[in-house]
Amino acid sequence: MEKINAVITGVGGYVPDYILDNEEMSRIVDTSDEWIMERIGVKTRHILKPEQGSGTSYLMTRAVQQLLEKTKVDPDTIEALIVATTTPDYHFPSTASLVIGNCGLKNAFGFDMEAACSGFLYAMEVGSGLISSGRHKRIIICGGDHMSSMTNYEDRNTCPIFGDGAACVLMEATTENVGLVDSYLRVDGQGFPPLHMTAGGSAKMPSHETVDNREHYVYQEGRTVFKHAVTNMSDAVETIVKRNNLTNNDIAWLVPHQANVRIESAVAKRIGLSEEQVMINIDHMANTSGGTLPLALWEYEPLLKKGDKIVFTAFGAGFTWGAAYMIWGYDGDKFSDYPADFYKEGKVSREEWYAKRGKRD
Ligand code: UT7
Question: Are 133 and 91 in contact (CB under 8 A)?
Answer without folding.
Answer: no
